Amino acid sequence: MRGIWPIVPKTIYLTDPALVEEMLLTRAEFFQRDVMTIQALSGAINKGSLFFSEGADWKWQRRALAPAFRHENLLALTPIFARCAGELCQAWRRERPTAPIDAMKAMSEVTFSIIESAVLGAQGTFDRERFLTALTRALSGVSWQRILALLSLPNWLPFPGSSQINRDMRYLYDETARIVAARRATRAHTPAIVDLMLNATDPESGRTMTDSELIGNLYGLMVAGHETSAVALGWSLWLLAKDQASQERLRAEVQEIAGADDIGPETVERLQFTKQVVQEAMRLFPPAAAIGRQPREDTTLGPHKVLKKEPIFVAIWALHRHEKLWDQPNAFDPDRFTPEKAKARHRCAYLPFGAGPRICIGMSFAMLEMTAILATLVRDFRFTTVEGHRLELAPDFTTRPRGGLPLWVAPV
Ligand code: HEM
C-alpha cells in the first residue's frame, strides 16, 4: 500500500505464503517486530516483555517462559479448562437464560477464569470484574493508538476516551505489580505460570526476571492469553449455531469419546473434530488479523526490494480467505483440517498463531483450552442464532465483533 509521504509510511501486506515463509521462518533474523505494532500495543506496563523484546533479551525470556508451556505441563491443566467451562454450564442450567447470551462476553469470562487459575494459580486473586472492565476499556484504545502510530505521532497524545484509558492502565499496572509482589513474598513453587516465571533462571547467564519484566510478562499473558482464545471460541459457537449438522457431529464426538465425564488429559487430544471446528473458526475469523515486522536493514523479500523499517504485515485475514489457497474460502468446513488435508497445505497458508521463532508461545495452551471448553459446552447445550441479528465486524486489538455475538442457548 502506498503511503502519504512524509506522514504515512508505505506499508506492505503479504498474502503469498512463500514470502511469508521467507519473512517469518527462513530469514526471520532479518526482520524484527514493527514499530507500528509496538507503538499501538505497548505501554509502560509491558514494554520490556517477551512480545516486545528483541535479540538476546527476547531469547532469554523465551527460554525462561518455555518450560511453563511444555506440552505435558499444559495437558495437566486440562481439568482447570474443563472445570471453568463446567461452571458456566452450571450457571446456565441454574439461570435458564430467557434472552440470548452474548457468546463473546461469556467466553471472555471463562478464559479469564482459566488465566486466573493457570497463570496466577488461584481464582479471586483480585477484583476480576473491575480488572476485566479496565482491560476491555484499555484495549479499546488500540484503534486510536494505531492511527497515531500510522501518522508517526507519539502515543501519549490525547484521543477520545484517553484519560479514562490512562486511569485504567494505571490501575492494571498497580494490580499486576501487587500480584507479583505478593507471589514474591510467598516464594511458592506451584505449577502456576507466575511461579514458574518467578523461579526461572537462565541456564547460560544465571539471570532471573526483574520486577518490570515480570509485571510486563504477567500482564502480557493475561491479555494475550484470554482475549484471543475468547474471540476464537465466540466465533466457533456462532459458526456452529449456523451449522447445526456440524454442531450435532461435534456433540456426538464428545459423547463417544468422553461420555458424561469431564474432558481430561486422556480425552482432550482425541477430540479431532472439535479441534477442527476451532481451527476452521480461526481460519474464517483469525483472532489476530495481521502480524507485523520490519527489516533491520534494506533488503529483499522474494524479488521485491524492501527498505529498512518499512512496515510489512502478514495479512492473515486475506491469506485465510484467499481464493488461490482455499476452495470456497468463505464457507465453514471443518473438514479442511483433517490431518491429511492440513499436511498437504503450504505451511504458511494458515497462520492464526504466526510461524517461526516468534510463533505464539501459548499455541498449545490455547488449542487444548479451546477444545476442552467447546467440547464441554456443546455436549450439554444447543446453540442457535438470533433471528434478525446483523453481524458488525470491528477489527480492533482482535476480531471481536461490535455489540457482541448474541446466541440462544438451551440444554440438549
Ligand atoms: C486463540 C488463541 C491465540 C491466538 C490466535 C494467538 C495469536 C498470536 C500471534 C498471531 C502472535 C504473534 C506471532 C508473531 O509475531 O509471529 C502471538 C504471540 C504471542 N502469544 Fe499468542 N495467541 C493466542 C493465545 C495465547 C495464549 C493462551 C498465550 C499465553 C498464555 C499467548 C501468549 C503469546 C505471547 C507471549 C506471544 C509473544 C511471543 C514472542 O514474541 O516470542 N497467546 N500470539
Automatic annotation (TrEMBL):
SUPFAM superfamilies: Cytochrome P450. InterPro entries: Cyt_P450 (IPR001128), Cyt_P450_CS (IPR017972), Cyt_P450_E_grp-I (IPR002401), Cyt_P450_sf (IPR036396), Cytochrome_P450_Monoox (IPR050196). Signal peptide: none annotated. It comes from the Bacteria. Keywords: Heme, Iron, Metal-binding, Monooxygenase, Oxidoreductase. Pfam families: p450. Gene3D superfamilies: Cytochrome P450 (1.10.630.10). The keyword Metal-binding applies. Belongs to the cytochrome P450 family. This is Cytochrome P450. It comes from Methylocystis iwaonis. The gene is cyc.
